[in-house]
Amino acid sequence: MDRISRKQLKTDPFRTEVQHTLEYVTEHKSQAVRYGGIALAVAVLIGGWYFYSQHEHTVRQEKMAEVFRISNANVGPAQSAFELSYATQDAKDAALVKALSDLSLQFHGTEEGTAGEYMLAAHAADKGNATEAERRLRDCVDSGKGPYTSMARVQLARIYGSQGKIADAKNLLQPLIDKPTMFVSKEEAQLALAKVFGPTQPDQARKILMPLRTSDRPAISQAAMTQLRELPQK
Question: Which of these, 192, 106, 183, 187, lies nearest to 148 by C-alpha position?
């Protein structure tokens, strides 16, 4: 993990990818998403989960609701007796991590448990704990269920790419290209694979990126053009 910096873990693999992979959710809710710390990032992830669960099932919603309530709690004095509030951001983060840990352990191998495990991986990355982040992502891929397994594949592939494990990264992303998910489209998986190829196999990256320049999704076409500009020149 020493080839990937704490800054990269905090911004590129998690915060940026969350914005991309939840583009479907934001398009349908017509609202902007902003990030400002692990609690807000988790709130967005859970928001995506709620949107998904409303269309698929309502299993174990009570535990998810608890996590959602903590992630939306205020920091500082409570404004009313019905409002959850924490004295400090650290206290709120600690409560959120505990709730996510309980969710992951109690429902391990389920969709809800995988969502909790993925959010804990994001939290570990946010805190600079690359080893824990990789371990939790691996668990999501190997034992997880539901839409967050696809997101975990993308993040783990980026970590492997930074370590020079190109074949391992491709093995994680190719199934998403062949069979996209609600949270990771074919184009997003292709962008991630091109990113992996970029430093050592720029020609392969170009083959992937060139058709994406004309995507009807602005976020995809812009990302493709940006990655093309960043590739080593021939």
Answer: 183
Q: Which residues of 58-87 are buried (b: 16+ CB within 10 A; e: fewer)?
A: eebeebbeebbebbebeeeeeeeeeeeebe
Q: Mean per-residue pLDDT for 7-17?
A: 41
5: DSSP letter = -
Residue 26, in any domain of the structure:
yes
Distance CA 134, CA 121 (A): 7
* Structural domain of 158: 6-184
Q: Is 171 inside a domain boundary?
A: yes
**Of 207, 201, 209, 210, whose CA–CA distance to 232 is shortest?**
201
Amino acid at position 46, single letter:
I
Residue type, 63: K
* Domain annotation covers residue 208: no
Q: Using a cut of 0.90, tell me whether the model's pTM lies above it.
A: no
Rounded to whole angstroms, what are the CA distances from 185 to 150, 170, 206, 227, 228?
10, 16, 19, 18, 20
How many independent structural domains does the chain possess? 1
Phi, psi of 75 (to 5 degrees): -110, 120
* 162 within some domain: yes
Reported as a single tens digit per residue, the pLDDT across 137-167 is 999 999 999 888 998 999 999 999 999 999 9
Q: What is the CA radius of gyration of the chain?
A: 18
